[in-house]
Amino acid sequence: MNISIIGTGNVGSSLAQGWLKSGHKVAFGVRDPHTFGGGKLPGLSTVQAKTVEEATEGADVIVISAVPQAVHEIASSLGDVSSKIIIDTMNSVRVKPDPYNNTTEALVALTNCKDIVKCFNTTGAENMANPNYGIMRIDMFYAGDSAKAKETAAQLAKDLGFENVYDFGGSDKFQLMEHFAMSWINLAIMQGYGRDFAFKIVKRQTSESN
Ligand SMILES: NC(=O)c1ccc[n+]([C@@H]2O[C@H](COP(=O)([O-])OP(=O)(O)OC[C@H]3O[C@@H](n4cnc5c(N)ncnc54)[C@H](OP(=O)(O)O)[C@@H]3O)[C@@H](O)[C@H]2O)c1
Questions:
Q1: Is residue 201 included in any domain, yes or no?
Q2: Per-residue pLDDT at 124
Q3: Domain, as residue range, for 17
Q4: Domain count, the chain
Q5: Strands 115-119 and 140-143: what pairing?
Q6: Choice from 40, 67, 122 to test ligand 1 binding pocket (greatest atom count within 8 A of CB)
């Protein structure tokens, strides 16, 4: 897939690194391609930096991993995204993109994209760079109203190495996805467990499932 990533920090760089390894074509959409210093992780020097508008034009999928307060500016730079898929990784941890509750709700309202999904927001960037915990691979989660966008996000999560991708539901679950992200942040930072852990769904083996 042709993937453009807007927001090239911890999340954008981790996703770019993984998708390059799995054979996708990645470009960065940045504020100023001339002053852009490159992605935050090794192996990203070949990724082309374009303006947000140019990056959008060439993309099948646009991944937005910028700061939530930039969502209005980014939405207005995207242009016609009616035939694109948008994946929103952002969480409004400290700043809400007023008058919207969260960035995904804002993107639904401010762009003409029909296929928007919230994904890659519920765990730390380190887990996106490496979802492999030795004896098991961790899970990813998504929410949104577009089956097409969800199918694409699931494929891209599996390409990174996530084991299963679970559906949180429709756009009414965007906020719940942010609360889930806050639960990870709470354990990692406020409760001091560190960033090397992840949520995984485990299922009891029943006679029906055997
Ligand atoms: N860090 C995590 O573990 C994690 C996990 C899940 C979700 N998230 C969420 O994902 C988002 C990104 O987090 P992060 O840790 O990757 O942040 P970060 O390292 O601070 O990177 C933010 C990126 O956004 C870019 N940006 C800011 N304003 C922009 C604009 N107007 N147009 C285009 N790009 C703009 C910044 O570009 P400049 O370098 O030019 O400022 C930077 O590349 C946040 O919403 C966060 O809540 C983070």
A1: no
A2: 98
A3: 2-190
A4: 1
A5: antiparallel
A6: 67
Spatial CA neighbour of 1 closest among 45, 52, 63, 46: 63
- Spatial strand order in the sheet of 85-88: 48-51, 25-30, 2-6, 61-64, 85-88, 115-119, 140-143, 165-169
Nearest CA to ligand 1 atom 45: 90
Taking alpha carbons only, the member of 66, 109, 60 closest to residue 86 is 60
Instruction: Specify if 200 maps to a domain.
Output: no
Distance, in Å, from the CA atom of 69 to the CA atom of 133, rounded to the nearest integer, reads 33
Structure tokens at 208: 């029906």
Rounded distance between C-alpha atoms, residue 78 and residue 90, angstroms: 16
- Give the residue, out of 44, 65, 94, with the most ligand 1 atoms within 8 A of its beta carbon, to mutate for a pocket test: 65
The CATH number assigned to the domain holding 23 equals 3.40.50.720
Q: Would you say residue 173 lies in a domain? A: yes
Percent helix, strand and coil across the chain, each to the nearest 5: 35, 20, 45
Please give the model's pTM, rounded to 2 decimal places. 0.97
pLDDT digits (tens, 9 = 90+) for 82-112: 999 999 999 998 899 999 999 999 999 999 9
208 located within any domain: no
Share of the chain above pLDDT 90, in %: 92
Count other Cβ atoms within 10 Å, centred on residue 33. Answer: 15
Cβ–Cβ < 8 Å for 163, 139: yes
